[in-house]
Amino acid sequence: MNLVGKCPPSPDALAAAADRGFDSVELYLQPSDLDSVEATAETVERSPVTALSVHTLHARPDDPEPFQRSDALADRLDAYLVVHSQYAQHTHTEQLDGYGFTAPYGYENNPGMSVHSLQNLVLGRGHNLVLDTAHLYMAEPAYLDALSGLLREYGDRIQVVHFADSTSVEDGLAFGDGDIPLEWSADVLDAHFDGAVVLEVMPDDQADARRRVLEWLG
Q1: What does the alpha-carbon distance between residue 63 and residue 40 come to, in Å, rounded to a whole number?
Q2: Distance (Å, rounded) from C-alpha 189 to C-alpha 182?
Q3: What is the rounded distance in angstroms from the CA atom of residue 59 to the CA atom of residue 35?
C-alpha cells in the first residue's frame, strides 16, 4: 500500500510532510486556497511532495462552486477528488454528481454510515467510495468483518482509504488514542487493498502513524 500524509497546500506544510517521510499527500483545503486554483496548484507543484488526492471543501451541497473549484484543483494536479462535507449526506450524492466533476473521484463514507447504507446510497448507485476506517468503526460493531468485506467485494471501486484511530463517538484520533484494532486493520488493508492509505491524523502525529504501520507490516 502507498502511505500518504495529509496537509494544507502551504509551502511550509508541504515541506514538513516531506520531512515526515511522505512522497505524496492529500490536500486539506480552506476557502482561501481556492481563491486562485492556479496559484495553489503551482505551490503544490513546486513542493517536494505530490498531491495524490484533494479533499473538497466542507461546503453545503446546494452550493456548487466550492465543489467545482476543489475539482478543478484536483484535475490540474492529476489528483483524486475526495467528495465529502460535514453538511452533506449520502442522499445528496446524485445532486453532487450533477456538478460535473472532471477529476477521478469517490464519495467518503460519513461517520456512522453502515455498510448497508453505503451499498444502497453509494456503491449500489455506481459511485466509487473513499473508505474512512474511523467512520466505519463508528457504524459497525463487527468492524473488521465490515472492513474486509467492503474491500473484498468492492475493492475495484475503492482507490483511497483514510486511516486513523477512533472511539465510538470521536474520530480522527492519533494512533493509540482510540479503540480501533489498528494493527489488525493494517493487516486487513495489506491483504485486500493496494491503493493509497491516507494517515488522517493531525500533522504532528503522522510520522508516528507511518512508523507504526511500517513496523506492523514488516
Answers
A1: 21
A2: 10
A3: 15
Which contacts (CB < 8 Å, 24+ apart) does range 118-123 have?
118/90, 118/150, 121/90, 121/91, 121/93, 122/90, 122/93, 123/154, 123/157
Residue 20, pLDDT > 90, answer: yes
pTM of the model: 0.96
State how far the Cα of 10 lies from the Cα of 145, in Å rounded to an integer. 38
Distance CA 91, CA 102 (A): 21
Question: What pLDDT score was predicted for residue 103?
Answer: 98
Kindly state the cell numbers that stand for 198.
491516507
**Residue 218, pLDDT above cutoff 90:** no
- Contact call for residues 14 and 25 (beta carbons, < 8 A): yes
